[in-house]
Amino acid sequence: MPSPVVKTCQFVSYWRTDWGADGLTAFLIFGLFISYVPQHLRIIRAGTSIGFSPWFLLLGSTSSAAAMLNIITLQWSIIQCCRKVRLGKCIEVTAGVFQVGIQWLLFTIILVLYMMYYPPDLKHVHLEIDTHDSRPMHHVRTKLKSSEWRLSVIVSWVVLIHLSLLTFVTFILLQTSSPSPDPSIPHSSQITLWATFLGISSGLLAAVQYAPQLTRTYRLKLVGALSIPMMIMQSPGGVVMAISIAMRPGTDWTSWIMYAVSAIMQACLLLICFAWKIRQRRLGIDDFGRPLGESTAAAGTTSNEEEGWMQSDEDSVSVVVEGEDSDEPREDTPLLKPGSFIRMRGLLGWILGLGK
């Protein structure tokens, strides 16, 4: 009696080419690059990753990693057949794995760029000491890391540990699990249980992935480094991708649920960004809160300009914490000042500013 692997390979050998499914997969892989590359270039050209939520990147990276390992687990027997069939047939039957793997890679690159282009002046807490004489305030950079930069570093380590742990467990199970005794069941109970865990965890992570980013973007009232073209392509693309994965052999609902949920949540984020784009145009500011026409490179701001801006507000307090949360200024004030200082203004001045 032939083994389950031999039966699977025989099935793959006689698999009839589905030009519709193959064309859809090729289109989606091309669309993934077209949708993600603008986001990558936007961060690189702007020279800053401000606007991203570390929680959004954490949940997105772990969710896509779980989805990738889910489809690898479910299609493992088909992947093994690539040693016994021609290359073209191998690529055709494992196209879903390539599709999901590329999506994971392109999203993870956003996390890498986020860490690489995190604003240096927001990595540490800065203090301004008032000398109480005619001299200007003394700007002191401390060695204390800001709360968001500490969180970003922790997020990076969690993503790496999560990927390593899931990959290790997945391949240990794939190498040690015995085939299913029932020919009608393609996977053993251990493999089925693990794949279900990966799929459900991926869907749950995707469901909450956009919650912190939605909250951050709504409170910031700026588009920031988010790429609207990417979201325009990925919102409907997520639905199409879910359909494409469902058409792949060996997959089930746990393989595509994450992409359907992500498409819905990303559409909500896109609507918020459209609203803030209209608001930014009305206020005459760019995506980062700077007045239109002003240089977008914060690093190009001279120290004299920073001192002049710091001294222009006589009501500001003597200690400023950079990189921490603060009250939002009035609506017509740019949210990101040159030098990226966040000032703690008096409560009365903030309330009075709302009416202006």
Q: Topology of this structure?
A:
Layout (H helix, E strand, L loop, with lengths): L3 H10 L5 H28 L7 H21 L1 H5 L6 H7 L1 H22 L7 E6 L8 E8 L1 H30 L12 H32 L7 H19 L6 H31 L19 H9 L35 H8 L2
Antiparallel strand pairs: 1-2
Task: Give a summary of the structure in a few sentences.
The chain is mainly α. It has helices spanning 4-13, 19-46, 54-74, 76-80, 87-93, 95-116, 147-176, 189-220, 228-246, 253-283, 303-311, 347-354, and strands at residues 124-129, 138-145. The N and C termini lie far apart (83 Å).
What are the main properties of this structure?
disordered C terminus; 4% strand; 62% helix; 356 residues; 2 strands; two-stranded antiparallel ribbon; mainly alpha; 12 helices
Describe the structure.
32% of the residues are buried. Strand 1 (124-129) and strand 2 (138-145) form a beta hairpin. This protein has twelve helices and two strands; from the N terminus they run ααααααββαααααα. Residues 295-356 have low confidence and may be disordered. The protein is elongated and about 85 Å long. Strands 1-2 form a two-stranded antiparallel ribbon. The longest helix has 32 residues, at 189-220. Helices cover 62% and strands 4% of the residues. It has helices spanning 4-13, 19-46, 54-74, 76-80, 87-93, 95-116, 147-176, 189-220, 228-246, 253-283, 303-311, 347-354; strands at 124-129, 138-145. The protein has 356 residues and is mainly alpha-helical.
